Amino acid sequence: MKSQFLTEVSNHLRARQYSKRTEDTYIYWIRAYIRFHNYRHPKDMRAREITAFLEYLALKRNVSPATQKTALNAMMYLYRKVLGVESINLPEFAYAKHQRNLPVVLTRDKIRQIFAHLHGSHLMLAQLMYGSGLRLMEACRLRVKDIDIDQLSIYVRDGKGRKSRITTLSELCVPELKLQLQRASLAWEEDRAWPEWSGVYLPYALERKYPSAAFELAWQYAFPADKRSRDKHTGKIRRHHIYEQNIQRAMKKAVRAAGIHKHATCHTLRHSFATHLLQRGADIRTVQEQLGHSDVRTTEIYTHVLNRGGRAVLSPLSDM
User: What value does the mean pLDDT take over residues 3-16?
Assistant: First the structure.
């Protein structure tokens, strides 16, 4: 059960328009920090206690550098934004060891086998993750207006790091996407007839700026949930987007059914999208833009995948 203090932190994050996922992540690490120090109040702790917690994560729990950095970000938000501590000078502490693993990439044949074991909206979302390089949550959160069938493009709204971008849409997705948008329209018609319906969730201040937008078809989720539900924060009746964990479970079953023994997930489809684009001759900057990476060095990891692939080096055994 969340304490009054953590509730205040949640309200602070929500008032500043942080995403639900960021809110949950920060609350998780702040709660872990408080538990680590035997439930002492954060206002009674400072740099020494923060450092001890971060070193515990690195040395005892063996978390990744990214996880340790996320925990550090949560601590800095807590002290600087919530508690109003302007300056926190952390001493040198043990950083988590950086292990840069190459992403898992599947061949086109393996991806076809996975698709053969997916159906309905699960298949459609998997095709968008592979065909357009979308992250799982980017695909789930697509609005009706984000899909431009005429221009064969997808507008990714508020992606990772609050960045937006336009990416490609495969012609092969068009027939099923049209049917999916019709299903979204039917769900919208059903919602409009429900007296307590409060419209779809809109990020940031859009709901206040455009009061009617939440009730317009253009802003509805392209992949809506089967049922309406009550928003636990506001108490309003809404229809959320399709639940991402359902897609993850379907993907896991499909990978197993296809007899694939690699650790393939929904994100593997995005990795495969980038690698296959490079294999087809796309330049690294184009792939960077399609993926929405702010730094091209992040995209360059896929060139390492190509260089270390089975066809990159000819084995000397081939000459015997």
Answer: 92
